[in-house]
Every structure is written in C-alpha cells, then in structure tokens.
Backbone:
C-alpha cells in the first residue's frame, strides 16, 4: 500500500492533495498518514500473533500526542527514555502497565514518577542505576520491576551514531558483568527481577544481528535459570530498518519469524520496542521552494525547511527522497536542496535531479521517524506544524510554533 501517491498529477497524503495542505497549514509542515500508521502497526502485530508478545512503541521516534493516542487505541505499549516521554504517554491515554523505561541516565525524579505511574519494567543500564533504583523504590515502599539491558557486543552494521550494542558503546551492561549484577539485583530489597533487555542499534536492514543478539540473551537466560533466577520476559528492543532509498530490510513477518524460530518452544514473553519501522514511512516533511541559486560549481534549491526541522541529513548524512508535489515538464537540473540555516551542514538532500521553480512545493519523504522529535529552534526558527491525514480529512495535531513563544520564558536583567 502506498499512502503517498500522485493523483491527477498532484502528490497526495491518502486522499488529500499536499498543495491544499500547504495552503491550509503553511510550510514547513510534517504530514502523517493515519492509515499508514495503522497498517504498519497491524503488520507487526499480526506477525506477533502466535506468541505471547508486547509491542512497546519507541516514543522518541515520534512523540506527537495524537499519534501516541492512536497507537494506544490500537493496544500498543510504549518504550520511553525520559520523564517527559512518560508524561506524554500518560497524557495520550497510554498505559503505564504496558510501558518500559529505557535510557542510561534516569534521574531520581524520573524513577519516582515511573514508580508512581506503575511502569511495566525499568531497563537498567548500570550498577549505579540499579542501586539508585532500589533506594528510590525503598524510600516510597514500592517494588521496582527490572530488566538489565545487556550489551551483546554484536555489530548491527549500521551508521556508527546509531549502533548501540558494540563493546565500546555507552549503552547497556557489559555481557560478562551481567550475571554477577543479576545475582546482586535478585538480592536487593525494592527490586524484582522480571526480564532481560537488549537493543543493538537502529536502521538495521538484516535479521542476522538481531538473531545473534537473541542467542546471547538466551545463554544468559539459561545461566540465570540454573542459579534460580527465572525471567518473565525478554525485551529485544527496536532497530528494524526501513526503506529510505534502496535498502531492503526484512518484512516484520520475516524478521520476527527468524527470532521466534530461534526462541523455539520457550515460554518467555517477548517485548519489542520498534520505533522507525512503525512510523518512518508514515510521514513526510512538506516544504516550499524559496529560491533557486544556479552557480558554476553547484545549483541550490533553497527551501523553507532546514536542518532544525529535519536533522537526519546533517547528523547522519541520511538520504531522504525529495518529490515535487506537482510535476513539471521542464528539463531537470542537478541540485542540492538546502535550508536557510547558517551552517554548511544545513542540507536536506544532495545531487538530486529536479525540475523546480520558486514557490513550488517539495515533499521530503520517509520523515515520520526522528524528524519532528529531533527538531530544534536553532536560528530562532519556530518548529513546524504537524498534521495527521485520515482518508479525506486532515487534522492539525500540533500548531506551528509561534515566534513569541520561543523567548516567552526568557528574562532580561534588571
Ligand atoms: C531508539 C530506541 C528504540 C527504537 O529504535 P528504532 O530503530 O527506531 O526501532 C528502541 N529501544 C531503545 C532502547 C532505543 O533507544
């Protein structure tokens, strides 16, 4: 199913033409398809149907409240990495009992909030965090459910900035230290050991590293069982890649199929924390061409969207397809698509053949994950609006930020 397609020569989100949305909501603007979201979720869910599983959508991929609410309505759990994300999940009607709390730097205040809310599990990443969590839980007479996030030292073969399961990574507990730390956790008052957790990275387009990581987790599960520590669940994290250009990631069914085969007849509950694979291809960034600059060495399309709106190209040299909303018959030229921000890294795409004129609309594709959530106000640029399209209807789900609000909380000296 293609939720963004040309209809009568105009690129549409479901049934709504993007030029009409630019007129109504302005640009730059993130536009998501509800049907695409539901389709991606259902595909993952269907592939999980034979097993005791819980999908915990990774909130940092796209944390818009309406989007979280739609996922909660579908029955999704959540994976959070901060107190702010916990507050969003609760405000969106998500269930704390289906929420796991990940991240290397949980503060005492965040632990308090998550214990109070009653999260399903804390994915603990260090001995210091384990001690702190036990102390916080004891201070409020609660029992914190814990998994240890173990670093399997598996190479996910992805961009180094989004590889998280190698020995040199800041994430997780070194594999060889996991068993002694589990023994300690099992004895600490205030904690209940419930699971084990691994997350090896993002935009992984091959099932093999996931299966390797699972194998290493199962060795630990068995070793723990032999010492009388029995786990309820294995959390296999997120990381499944999507197609941006010509990548060929396994379908959810194939990726999950391989993992389930490796699990065999074990009775463990399996948690997943998919982010990008659920939302990456459900959204676009709609932008308008401000200027064309034709030079001796290069041609530039200057758009009203910039690296502060979509950071991935600047941060990871990520490739996003760029499509004209209305196709022109004119001959195409080779352009770099750049924003107004004062940085040479401010580009959305490089070396693209485009036939464009000032005022034209462009759609930066596959921008549903790590788009709006990584946006900033750099250069005092208000963040874009967000819209969810549902069939023939477009709903504004986040207003464009206002310039006044950018400095409303700042103070002058007396
Ligand atoms: C970012 C993250 C995810 C989601 O990763 P995707 O590549 O978007 O699926 C899941 N779990 C943890 C712990 C993460 O940090």
Residues:
């Amino acid at each position: 199913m293609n939720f963004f397609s040309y209809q009568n020569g105009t690129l549409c989100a479901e049934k709504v033409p993007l030029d009409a949305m630019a007129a109504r909501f302005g640009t730059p603007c993130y536009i998501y398809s509800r049907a695409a979201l539901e389709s991606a979720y259902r595909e993952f869910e269907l592939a999980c149907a034979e097993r005791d599983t819980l999908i915990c959508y990774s909130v940092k991929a796209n944390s818009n409240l309406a989007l979280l609410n739609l996922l909660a309505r579908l029955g999704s759990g959540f994976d959070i990495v901060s107190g702010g994300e916990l507050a969003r999940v609760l405000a969106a009607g998500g269930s704390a009992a289906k929420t796991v709390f990940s991240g290397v730097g949980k503060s005492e205040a965040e632990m308090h909030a998550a214990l109070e809310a009653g999260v399903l599990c804390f994915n603990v990443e260090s001995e210091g965090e384990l001690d702190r969590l036990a102390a916080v839980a004891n201070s409020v007479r609660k029992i914190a459910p814990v998994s240890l996030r173990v670093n399997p030292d598996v190479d996910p073969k992805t961009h180094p900035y989004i590889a998280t399961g190698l020995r040199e990574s800041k994430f997780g507990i070194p594999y060889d230290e996991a068993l002694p730390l589990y023994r300690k956790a099992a004895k600490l008052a205030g904690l209940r050991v419930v699971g084990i957790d691994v997350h090896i990275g993002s935009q992984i387009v091959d099932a093999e590293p996931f299966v390797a990581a699972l194998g290493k987790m199962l060795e630990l599960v068995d070793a723990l069982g032999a010492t009388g520590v029995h786990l309820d669940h294995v959390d296999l994290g997120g990381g499944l890649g999507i197609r941006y250009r010509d990548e060929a990631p396994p379908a959810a069914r194939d990726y999950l199929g391989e993992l389930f085969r490796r699990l065999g007849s074990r009775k463990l509950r399996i948690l997943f924390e998919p982010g990008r694979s659920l939302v990456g291809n459900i959204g676009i960034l709609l932008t308008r061409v401000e200027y064309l600059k034709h030079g001796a060495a290069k041609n530039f399309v200057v758009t009203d969207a910039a690296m502060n709106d979509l950071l991935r190209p600047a941060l990871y040299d990520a490739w996003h397809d760029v499509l004209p909303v209305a196709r022109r018959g004119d001959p195409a030229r080779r352009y770099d698509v750049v924003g107004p921000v004062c940085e040479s890294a401010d580009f959305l795409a490089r070396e693209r053949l485009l036939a464009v004129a000032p005022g034209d609309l462009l759609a930066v594709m596959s921008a549903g994950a790590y788009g709006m959530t990584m946006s900033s106000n750099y250069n005092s640029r208000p963040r874009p609006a967000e819209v969810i399209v549902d069939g023939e209807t477009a709903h504004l789900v986040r207003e464009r930020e206002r310039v006044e609000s950018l400095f409303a909380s700042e103070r002058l000296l007396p």
